[in-house]
From TrEMBL:
Residues 1-23 form the signal peptide. GO terms for molecular function: peptidyl-prolyl cis-trans isomerase activity. The keyword Nucleotidyltransferase does not apply. Keywords: Signal. SUPFAM superfamilies: FKBP-like (SSF54534). This is Peptidylprolyl isomerase.
Length: 324
């Protein structure tokens, strides 16, 4: 189910007509690699181990398996410092991703981190063939081999991460109330599964019938930065159990419990919106990845596991258009 959530960003983009077809072809630029991985290893005097895929690995510390070991489906927070083979630092960021869910690019790094323990520090030497190959970014030459120093900060089980992101969504709902200056006596209703409804307590919830919802969607990243992805967007609810309700799972939970003819807010845990999204290493490549269609353009500033906030401008009884 988690892997299918990664398709939500593409579905959302199609639904809201935000997705732009990739117009920039893969550009290959000649680049002379100054040193091979083998020469780098030979000159390092460190006990690197060559991996079957051609990369190299050096374990600096072992970490504590009792605190968590990376396996499929677990959410990982890790500091990744990226260098070229001239040992020039080109990126330094804490990255978050769901292991083996196709949410971490390059994917070879995702695979390489399976089995690492919380607190472990590992150095990977990644050949360009397992990284970005001959793809030439403005800020990264083609055919660049990478050294990636990884410190595993936290390994969350699925249950532990779910509890954290539900708490983030509830906190955002309470922040909305604290910042509201409309004079309304708003309250938060827990709709279940990490979806929270900030509403007028005197309103009456709608039955499970067709409805039209219009409003704006923002995302709040875990670093507290906020980004508006969609404005004045319209969604239709087709009725309970209708297979056309497949855009964002959080809305399917919310629609039958919302109040007609009332403004308000919905906050959703990332698992109810678009889940892990995509983590790009080095992180500064996200913008060009979006520009070139590698990741969804509308989500370039929405980092993995951001909490969704939907401002409800209108919710009325309305049959969906005949062509929907």
């Amino acid at each position: 189910m988690m892997q299918s959530k990664l398709l939500f960003s593409a579905i959302i983009l199609a639904l809201f007509m935000f997705f732009q077809a990739c117009k920039a072809p893969m550009v290959e630029r000649e680049n002379v690699v100054s040193i091979s991985l083998e020469d780098y290893v030979a000159g390092s005097n460190l006990p690197y181990e060559k991996q079957p895929n051609g990369s190299y690995k050096y374990e600096e510390t072992t970490g504590d398996p009792d605190l968590g070991t990376i396996s499929s489906g677990m959410v990982v927070e890790a500091r990744m410092v990226v260098y070229n083979l001239e040992d020039q630092e080109i990126d330094n960021a804490v990255q978050r991703f769901r292991s083996l869910s196709e949410a971490l690019l390059p994917r070879s790094l995702d695979t390489a981190m399976v089995g690492l323990n919380q607190g472990q520090s590992v150095r990977f030497l990644v050949p360009s063939s397992l990284a970005w190959k001959s793809y030439a970014f403005d800020l990264l030459p083609s055919d660049t081999h990478l050294r990636i120093d990884v410190e595993v900060l936290t390994v969350f089980s699925e249950a532990a991460w779910e509890a954290r992101e539900f708490a983030e969504a509830e906190q955002l709902a309470n922040e909305v109330i604290a910042s509201d200056n409309s004079g309304q006596n708003l309250e938060v209703e827990d709709l279940g599964r990490g979806v929270y409804y900030v509403k007028d307590p005197l309103g009456v919830s709608a039955p499970s019938v067709y409805g039209r919802l219009r409003g704006d969607m923002d995302f709040k990243n875990l670093d507290q930065s906020q980004y508006t992805a969609f404005t004045d967007s319209t969604l239709y609810y087709y009725g309970a159990g209708d297979e056309r309700n497949n855009y964002i799972e959080g809305f399917i939970h919310a629609f039958p419990k919302m109040q007609y003819n009332k403004t308000g807010y919905l906050t959703m845990a990332s698992s109810m919106a678009y889940d892990a999204s995509v983590t790009v290493v080095p992180s500064f490549l996200r913008a060009q990845c979006a520009e070139d269609g590698i990741i969804a353009p509308a989500f370039v500033n929405v980092l993995p596991f951001a909490t969704a906030l939907f401002t409800i401008e209108e919710y009325v009884k309305a049959n969906p258009p005949a062509n929907n």
